[in-house]
Every structure is written in structure tokens, then in C-alpha cells.
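User: Can you help me understand a structure? I only have the sequence.
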Amino acid sequence: MDDFSYLSNGDVNAIEALYQQYRKDPQSVDEGWKKFFEGFEFAQANYEDGGAIPENVQKEFKVINLIDGYRSRGHLFTLTNPVRQRRQYSPTLDLENFGLSDADLDTEFEAGEQVGIGKAKLRDIVEHLQMTYCQHIGIEYMYMRKPEHVEWMRNKIEIKNRPKFTTDEKKHFFKKINQATVFEQFLQKKFVGQKRFSVEGNESLVAAIDDIVETGSRMGAKEFVVGMAHRGRLNTLAHIFGKPYDQIFSEFEGKEYDDDGVFDGDVKYHLGYSTDVVADSGEKVHLTLCPNPSHLEAVDPVVEGLVRSKIDEYLHDEKAIVPILIHGDAAISGQGVVYEVVQMAQLDGYRTGGTIHIVVNNQIGFTTNYLDGRSSTYCTDVGKVTLSPVFHVNADDVEAVIQTVRIAMEFRQTFGRDVFIDLLGYRKYGHNEGDEPKFTQPQLYKAIAAHDTPREIYLQQLIGEGVYTAEDGTKLRAVLEEELNAKFDASKEISRAYVKHFLEETWKGYQQLPHGEFDPSPKTGVPKKKLLELAERIAHLPEDKKFFRKTKKLMADREKMIAEDRLDWSMGELLAYASLLDEKHPVRISGQDVERGTFSHRHAVVKTEDTEEEFISLNHVSDKQAQLTIYNSLLSEYAVLGFEYGYAFGVPNGLTIWEAQFGDFFNGAQITIDQFISAAEDKWRTMNGLVMLLPHGYEGMGSEHSSGRMERFLQLCAENNMCVANCTNPANFFHLLRRQVKREYRKPLIVFTPKKLLRYPKAVSKLADLTKGGFQEVIDDASVNAKDVDTVALCSGKIYYDILEHKEKTGAGDNIAVVRLEQLYPLPEEQLDALVKKYGEDCKYIWVQEEPENMGAWSYMLRKYRKANLDVIARVSSGSPAAGSPVIHAQRQQAILDRLFENAKVKA
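Assistant: Let's start by predicting it. Here is the structure, written out as C-alpha cells:
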């Protein structure tokens, strides 16, 4: 019926859910809804036979609808934009759109209970709603599905319940705004035309972060980890992290780095930092700012991973550490990794207790207007995916900003969920300070030029309140300018620049490897007695639980391997993890199917048949072991790889692994590889021991499931920035994984792992191979006599076994030594030199690979190893890694083998 059409403007499902909740227990809904439903049922009971509902009852419902309209859509009609008129939305919140009129303004309505002001005149109800929902703070929250979340937020944002500030607090807010403004203006004068990515127009960001730290410290937060792009970064470093002014000024001078001249470093607005501060509460708080590249949102998952590692390793409390991600408006709506990170927020393997997202919204992306930058109404609409509350706040109103961040911080600590704050300001200059923004936004920049700074706006407010005088404002500016000038002069005395490790304390005791070759692989064998003990534990299932028949067979097969001394790939891998856990090195593994393994080989997690309870035998190998955490990930490469990279930052003593479902899928995370994994040490002096497992091998699976694109990694290799390996037996993989945490330094490790070899009868090892020695970078051919050899086939990975099969099948090849290069980078030149000496320079040396000639390791080998006159046997160069047809695959694979053996001797 028309009188109840207001329901169509609200969330009908939410109202229905509340009504059903009310019917079960009237006391379970808040007082306003209780009275509404009482009125609704009263109307139903008395007028269900068609009698006319009294006008005053109808209007009560209409006022309820008006209130719901403000709560659901008030954010569209706010004063949150400091320099532009807001877009017009319809229907508006005018009384006429709710069946009310000005004639009703002096009528009292019980619906006032809904907003906590009791029975009140309509004009008072509207004024209350306007002040709550349509001023400098807009909020979207009514879509949240948990009534307790909605009710909590509604109570906190009611105008009468918002935080109130003391005079001392107001002075502190002004101090931060004064610092932010004067600092930027000082840089503009002293470093004319240099890029700094000023925060002018959003200076209240600095006050916001400062108050998050202060508020959080009172709510149990001991650490904050911040990720942000370049906009406002220098200001944040100076006024939140306390990085000395003279050091920042010195970085503008472009001085040499304090090292051997090889370190490349990075621009000043990409650098990380960490420090301890003492909050006003007296609590000591640790702050970390992650270094990051210009790929704006690439740092987001890294921050989340670092935070999770700290929760897992020593904090054990999500409330004790808070991730803060500071986005740009164009980036948060345009970069897909944001969506991936948001989807992680409540997943067991990735949750961090809620992230505070702050958008430095300057209403433009480089030179692109927001109308060209997104289809959504707001840049923050991605937050609604996980039903997170979203605030929109006018960045000119410092106190509104602080009110917002305090509510956000409390929500996070109360419910452990993300909160988004859209800090709506502007960008005073172009994208960087050398751009001319009037080329593309002349009207906007005309308005900006005439607009007062947030500092001036707040100062005038405080003068009006009697907190400060105009002279006080002048004096506070002058005092800071004097300090800045003194530090500017002092910066001239700094002769060299230094990039500090942003996690110095965490990485104490780990030494960066000097430029040159890797150390020889350390001994990583484990005593046989210990291995047998570990093997028994990882093959054991608790007897009081019911397991699937095939699961029991899997465990029986593990016991059989030990009994027969034929360890397959999975057993070698699991024993590596077990031994590290036993030695108190935590292990974390994630990827899309890692619990079972894409190729069903690992089975690190098994489930009971009746309840699907998970059992991880690796967490039962010894009494005081470290823990294995292993998670099937969301269907993401970019964010998940970034998360694990961040996690590895926080646990240098642990083994952190990301496994691709198929090796080629890593390319969804190429930015993380290019900007972090391969370059971070050279840019930011950071070490990281992340392991990437990339299933690789040509088995006729088509173009997208054959190659992990090792050529891309090898092209990125330089200055010992990472290790690239392609093992051929379980023992060497065992030693490779253990080596990763047994060195005094850390490097990312890229491993091209097998598919065929997981169950290949010849790809096995003996227990003794795990008890002695260490990782073998090169494995020579023990089956030939060096005097008979005229051809040395160098290869890597699974093709070794293809060659071996061909030799056995044809009886040919006594003249061919098949040498396995297990570590591709750093290239083990000394060992290769020894082989050349052994077989002689007159031999023919051939690099044999499955990949097309323009892919794989051939170009790398041709460039890096010149002491042997290498030739190549490979598939012909191609734009695609492999053929889609199994028939063509087999023909091409056979052609490689035929070419290698065409001049081979045949056994007598």
C-alpha cells in the first residue's frame, strides 16, 4: 500500500531481518526500532480489515522513512568537498520526497526516539539529521549486515555522541597542521621545481595519522605499520616518524651513498623508516613505514604480510598492531590489487585484525579528472565489498577529520574489521611540483588558488574560540621556520647519503652479502636417526580420528618409502620442513592449492572423514618445535605474493614460501617481482628470504602450463639479488630449502619445481643423501668415462630425465656427459670451469633445454658463461612457450633428443 512505500527506499532485507529479530525478542533491537515495530503491529492489528490508518500514524511512518533516508543516503548531500560543488543526486532528502511538508515542521513525532532525542518537532529531527549526516562528515554504513555493527556505528556518529576536544587537544591538532603546512611551503621555496609530491590541500592527513597512533595506543595498539605512495610521504616521515629535517633536506641535494659506490638507492619519497615514539598516553609505540615503488598500491599486501608475521611470531594479538594503508583516490579505484587485498581481510591465512584505509583524495589522478577515472560513485566503493564502513570527510575541517579517525580506530579495535576514510581535499600544485595543472583543470585550479589553506581555516576557527590569537599563529610559524632554516644549514654538512634498513631491529644479526659471489653452500645434512624419527611423525595419523581410506594409504606409502629407502619428491620436501620446524625455524606456505598440492603430492593437511577436522602431522614432529602454517590462498597472485614477501620481512629466521598453481601464473604478480623481489636490496638495503615455487616442465599441457618463464627471472638477476634453481632430485631440493635459512644472509629463492618428477620412479633419493653434505649447484654425470666423452650436454631440470630415458632406450650416448645445472643464478662458474677442465676444451659443449630458443636459460648462459664455446639445442624461437597439441609437443620434444644424439656412439 502506498503509505508504506518508504520501505522501497531502504534496505528491505535489513528491515525485515530486524523485524524478525524484534518478533523473537523485542529487547534485542534498539529503542527506536522497537517503537517503530510496535507502531507497525498496532497499525496492522487495528486497521487490517481496511479501516483508514490515522494520518498521525501514517506520518510517524513517514518520519521513520525520512530518518532511514538520511542514514542510507545522507552521504550524498554533504559539505565534504572543499573546492567543488558536489554532483547532484536524486531523489533528494527534501521533505516532499517522504510525503511530508513544511507544514509538519512544528508537529511532534515519537520517531524522534529513533535518533535519540525523544519525542520532538520535525524541524528538530531534521536539524539533528542534517548535523549528523550532511555536514563535513558523510558516512556509508547501513549496508553492513551485522546489526551490532550498524547499531554501534549509528550511536558513534550521532552528532551528540561524537568525540569532543579539549583546548590542549585543539592546540596539538594545530601543531600538526602547522608543521605539515610550513614544512611544505619551506620545501617549495628552498627546492624550486624539485619533485616532493606535496600533501598541500590534504595537510590534515598528518594530524589524522598522528591521532590514530595516539588513539590506538590507548586501545592496546603497540605497533603501526604504514604503507603509502609518494603523496605526503616526506611530511609523514618528518612529522609522524620523526625523521630528522636535515637528513630529508640532504636527500634533495643528490649526494653519493655511503658505501662502495655500487648501491643504487632510491628516490627520497620511496624510502622506508622505523622508529619508537612515546604517545601522550605514556605508551611506547613502534612505527614502521614500508619502502615502496611508484607502483602506487603494490605496497598494500606487503604491509599486510608484515603485520601478520608480527602477529604470528610475537604479538599474538591483532589489537596490538595496526596496518594503515594510505591510498590515492585514483589508485584505490583503479588498481586491482586493492580489491585483492580487501578480499583478504577476513580470511584465516591473511587477516590482520582490520586495516585503517585513508584516501588522500585530491580529486585527480595525474591529469585525469575523477569522472574519467572511475565508474563508481566514490573512489572508496571497493570497501563495500567486505561491508566495511566508509567515511567521507572534508579535509579542511581538522576536527571533523580527528572525529572520524577516532571512531574508525575504535571500530577496528572493537570488531577487527577494515575501515575506509575518504579524506576529501585537493592538490595545490600539479602531479609533481614541476607540472602546470591549469593545462588540464583550469577552473579547478582557479578555485584552488583562491582557497585558504587548512592551517589558515583552522587558525581562524581557534581565534574565534579564544584558543589562539593571530599573533600566536604568526609566532608558531616563525618558530618552526627558524628550526627548518637551522636544519637546512646543517644538511650542508652531511657529505654522504645513507639509506637505513627499515626493519633494522628485526634483522639484527643478519649480514648483507658483499658484492661478489655467494658463499659456498653450507652443510645442511640431518643425522639419520633424527630423519627416521621425523619421517615416522609425518607418516602418523592419530588413531582416535577417522580418516579417508586413501589418506591412510598415503601415510602408509610414506612409511614404505622409508622402509625401502626410496624417497620421492614429496618426502624430501616434507622432511625439509620437518627438520626446520624441529630446529625452531617456523615455516609458512601459501598458494592456491598448497595444502594438498596442485598435483596432489604434498598432503600437508589431511581431513577427517566425518567432521572434516584438519590434521597437520608436521605440527606434531617434536615437543618444542616451531609451527607450520599452510593456507590455500584466494585466487590471486599479485596480492598473495606481495603478502608473503611482506611476511618474510618479519620472520628472517623462518622459511616463507609462495607456490604458484602453475609456474606461468606468477606473471599475475610481475610488479611484485620487478619492484620488490629483484630490486629491493639494491634500492632500500633490505634482505628478504621469500621462496617462490614455480611448477615448470614441458609435458604437453599446452602453452600456459609448461613454462615458469625462467628467462624473465634470469634477466633480472644481478649483484647477487636472488637465487634461481631447478632441482632434479628430492635430496637436492631438501638441501636447497634448508640452505635458505642456514646462511647468515637472506636472498629471495626462485625454484622451478617439477610436475612429472613428483612421482617419476627415477627422481628419488636415498636417506643417506639427506644426511650428508649440502646443496649441489652442479651434478656431474657419474655414468660415463671422461676419456670417452666428446660432447657435454648441460641442462637443467626435468629434461635431464628425458635424455636419460633416450639413452637407455637407444643404447647410445656413451660419448655424451649429461651435466645438471641445479643452480642457474648465481652461476657456479668455478664448478663449471672444473668440468671443462675435466672433459677438455676440445669437447663440444651444448646447452639443452625444452623451452624455445628465445626463452628458458639459453640467452642467460650465452651471456654469462663464455669459457666454453656453447651451442644450443632447443625448440625454435616462438611467441608462445609451448604447443597446445600433445602430438606436436611430442614431436618437438623428440626432435630435441634426436639432435643431441645424432652423432652419439652406440653401445657394442
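Now, to help you interpret it: Residues 320 and 889 are 55 Å apart (CA to CA). The chain has a mean pLDDT of 91. Let me know which part you'd like to focus on.
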